[in-house]
Design a protein that fits this description.
By secondary structure, this protein is an all-alpha fold. It has a single domain, classed as MFS general substrate transporter like domains (Growth Hormone, Chain: A). The chain has 21 helices and no strands. The longest helix is centred in the middle third of the chain and has 31 residues.
Length: 444
């Protein structure tokens, strides 16, 4: 029996790349920046209201730390689960549901102000925000080709800096003028409004994974391999990216939970003064994000390896922030101390967009959402540990000052180790070759 002749696939037969819709892509970017802004305002509201909440409810540092850490109980698990769901559910539906749940999560404490309702609201908020960064980045990547992702990635992460930059003075004003409950109510309304607008405009873009042909099914695009998840997860680039994100997330969790209280109780700043300094740190992070990620894109286009353009800056940023974290408690009060605090709590910001870019370089596009969820879940575990551990140190140390110093030194050690791990192990080109991928294959 004759075997039918099959012609090899030629360059002319290959499918044309999707068209880049610049206007639509930047509209989606603006919506996702707003999404991240609200996300980080939600996270920071408890820390900004920490002193009045602790005074009104008469709770200890350890109890407050437990409330803050409860945010992370389902945070990582939710990010992991939704990452796998993202191959079957549109980004439009996922982000809409998250924002809607953010609004609901603010309600329990408005009904009854007590430790159980604070914990219930934070647990629900953490579950709904766990996938937010990875899934919004995944949605963003669907609208941009590989060589155009640096600036939108930086803008997406900059929503975090903007969230704190804008939220700190606004939320502090609401707390001072109308009581701390008003801040929770305002954020509930803001989340609801965003979700309604997103449902109308937030459709999925043409880049990345192909949509399933029928519900419950998913298939890679032609020519793309499907890898066992353990292979990309256990390569050095992904492990190094997770390490960098772990160190950065430790500082981020500490800043959300305890930095406002530290400014109030240890540096004797007024609520407005503390909000101003926090906004200044966020502005510093914002400038770094806008400068470094586009610079990394430019280096990539000039042929510089991703290891040095995207990987090394992650390790260096976390390590430098760790050194600043170890130093500022021993510097006299004034501008030198505030500058070191800014580096400690803001200098790591560039890690978050870059660690998604390095991970994407060693993952097939149709598996990217799930891998982003796994990376986000493991990289953000510090939120479960750092706030409670700091509260425990404050309650058991000889003084609050000694407790804070111990917490900052421990954080510095974690960040230095994480930064060095990222610097050594992130090698995207080498790992992509080992996995049988190229940049085009992993991001087509």
């Amino acid at each position: 029996m004759a075997t039918p002749h099959t012609s090899p696939l030629t360059l002319e037969d290959a499918p044309a790349p999707p068209a880049f819709d610049r206007r639509r892509a930047w509209l989606i970017t603006a919506m996702i920046v707003a999404f991240m802004l609200i996300n980080y305002a939600d996270k920071s509201v408890l820390g900004l209201a920490a002193v009045p909440i602790m005074d009104e409810l008469d709770i200890s540092n350890s109890t407050y730390g437990m409330i803050s850490s409860s945010f992370s109980i389902l945070f990582s698990l939710s990010g992991l689960v939704v990452g796998f769901v993202s191959s079957r559910v549109s980004s439009r539906a996922l982000l809409f549901t998250m924002a809607l749940l953010w609004a609901v999560a603010q309600l329990p404490v408005l009904i009854v102000a007590a430790v159980p309702t604070l914990i219930a609201g934070r647990v629900l908020l953490g579950a709904a925000e766990g996938p937010a960064a990875s899934m919004s980045m995944h949605a963003l990547y669907k609208w941009f080709p590989l060589d155009r992702r640096g600036l939108p990635s930086a803008l997406q992460i900059s929503g975090a800096a903007l969230g704190t930059l804008i939220a700190a003075p606004v939320v502090t004003w609401l707390i001072t003028a109308f009581g701390w409950r008003s801040a929770f109510a305002a954020l509930a309304v803001t989340s609801l409004v965003w979700s309604l607008i997103w449902w109308r405009v937030g459709h999925d873009g043409p880049f990345g994974q192909a949509r399933p042909s029928s519900p419950g099914t998913s298939a890679p695009q032609p020519g793309q391999p499907r890898l066992p998840y353990r292979r990309p997860l256990l390569n050095g680039t992904v492990l190094g990216s997770i390490a960098g994100a772990f160190g950065a997330s430790w500082a981020l969790a500490l800043s959300h939970a305890w930095l406002p209280a530290y400014f109030r109780t240890q540096l004797d700043l007024t609520p407005g003064g503390a909000a101003t300094v926090i906004s200044g740190i966020s502005a510093f992070s914002f400038v770094l994000l806008l400068a470094v990620s586009p610079f990394a894109d430019a280096l990539n286009r000039r042929g510089v390896s991703s290891r040095w353009a995207n990987g090394a800056p992650q390790g260096i940023a976390v390590a430098v922030a760790g050194l600043a974290m170890a130093s500022f408690s021993f510097v006299g009060s004034g501008w030198p101390q505030l500058l070191l605090i800014a580096v400690a709590f803001g200098g790591h910001a560039i890690v978050f967009p870059l660690h998604y870019m390095t991970t994407a370089a060693v993952v097939p596009a149709h598996q990217r959402g799930a891998l982003f969820g796994i990376v986000a879940a493991t990289g953000t575990l510090p939120g479960l540990v750092a706030p409670y551990l700091t509260g425990h140190l404050l309650d058991t140390a000889d003084s609050q000052s000694a407790g804070y110093t111990g917490s900052f030194l421990l954080s510095a050690a974690v960040m230095l180790l994480s930064g060095l791990t990222a610097l050594v192990y992130i090698r995207p080109e080498q790992d992509a070759r080992r996995l049988g991928l190229t940049h085009d294959e992993s991001d087509s």
